[in-house]
């Protein structure tokens, strides 16, 4: 057996015979992903799965597997570019000489510069960095970040970045991704996470909604219950009672045209009163990020229904 090949004799242990010569001599070549007969040479199966354990590297910052790190739209190069690690040691762990360190520093510098070739690449790198910060502040999932980066790439192709700030476009794309994924995040929360005006994000969101022809689902007020109840420190029993109120309102078509966050906050306020878990309108409104006037107006209709 040569050093360049690793033969796994698991097929022989299973007593599977060769279809040509009939001998129990089947072996697996992991490098070529083939199962063949060591007696007559016939290839029985191609492109088999590699069942070896994953390799781990001590100083690796990527996924510790022999398949490599996964590609992602949240990276400007999608994770396909090479990276020269900043460790000034060779493969044996010995320190590099001074001249070799200088050469590696120059190579690392030009490698970084070669990734960004156009203004669009530079814009995309900065935008995805802002997107990563906003994702952490809003506690969003990787799937929503992937969707937001996809929307931003489409906006970049349509040249919607010209005349607009990167921050406002990133915030609008992230809000659009939250709307598509039905994640309960308001424009005010998105604006606060990046430090720009809500009006600017709203105008940019309307632009990408029109130009990219996005299809947004209607936000369900029930999905906002958990968020408001958590901020107001309400019990699970109150949340369930509020959900019953909202479902009853939907059956009577009372939720049409109403702000979902306002409806959810009003239902929670009424549920807290009925279950003697008292919260003021101001506490509920602050937890939902709306005004007390909205809570009072929505409560009038829900009280009549109850």
TrEMBL record:
Biological processes, Gene Ontology terms: DNA-templated transcription initiation; transcription preinitiation complex assembly
InterPro entries: Cyclin-like_dom (IPR013763), Cyclin-like_sf (IPR036915), TFIIB (IPR000812), TFIIB_CS (IPR023486), TFIIB_cyclin (IPR013150), Znf_TFIIB (IPR013137)
Residue stretches making up the TFIIB-type domain: 14-45
PROSITE patterns, alphabetized: TFIIB (PS00782), ZF_TFIIB (PS51134)
GO MF term list: TBP-class protein binding; zinc ion binding
Entry keywords, A to Z: Metal-binding, Repeat, Transcription, Transcription regulation, Zinc, Zinc-finger
Name of one Pfam family that matches: TFIIB
Tagged with keyword Transcription: yes
GO CC annotations on file: transcription preinitiation complex
Membrane-spanning ranges: none
Function (record text): Stabilizes TBP binding to an archaeal box-A promoter. Also responsible for recruiting RNA polymerase II to the pre-initiation complex (DNA-TBP-TFIIB).
Family the UniProt entry places it in: Belongs to the TFIIB family.
Protein name: Transcription initiation factor IIB
């Amino acid at each position: 057996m040569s050093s360049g090949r690793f033969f796994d004799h698991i097929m022989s242990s299973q007593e599977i015979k060769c279809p040509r010569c009939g001998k129990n001599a089947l072996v697996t070549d992991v490098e070529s992903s083939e199962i063949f007969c060591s007696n007559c040479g016939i290839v029985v199966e191609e492109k088999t799965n590699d069942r070896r354990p994953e390799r781990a590297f001590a100083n690796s910052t990527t996924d510790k597997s022999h398949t490599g790190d996964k590609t992602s739209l949240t990276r400007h190069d999608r994770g396909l570019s090479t990276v020269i690690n900043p460790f000034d040691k060779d493969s044996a762990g010995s320190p590099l000489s001074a001249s070799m360190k200088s050469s590696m520093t120059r190579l690392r510098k030009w490698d970084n510069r070669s990734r960004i070739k156009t203004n669009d690449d530079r814009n995309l790198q900065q935008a995805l960095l802002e997107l990563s910060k906003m994702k952490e502040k809003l506690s969003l999932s990787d799937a929503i970040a992937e969707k937001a980066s996809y929307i931003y790439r489409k906006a970049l192709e349509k040249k919607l970045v010209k005349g607009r700030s990167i921050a406002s476009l990133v915030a609008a794309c992230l809000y659009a991704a939250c709307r598509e994924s039905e994640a309960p995040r308001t424009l005010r929360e998105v604006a606060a996470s990046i430090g720009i005006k809500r009006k600017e994000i709203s105008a940019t969101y309307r632009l990408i909604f029109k130009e990219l022809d996005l299809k947004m689902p209607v936000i369900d007020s029930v999905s906002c219950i958990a968020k408001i109840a958590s901020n107001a420190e309400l019990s699970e029993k109150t949340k369930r009672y509020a959900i019953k109120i909202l479902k009853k309102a939907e059956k009577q078509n009372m939720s049409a045209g109403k702000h979902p966050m306002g409806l959810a906050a009003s239902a929670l306020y009424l549920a807290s009163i009925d279950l003697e878990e008292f919260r003021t309108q101001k506490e509920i409104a602050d937890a939902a990020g709306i005004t007390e006037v909205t809570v009072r107006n929505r409560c009038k209709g829900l009280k009549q229904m109850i």
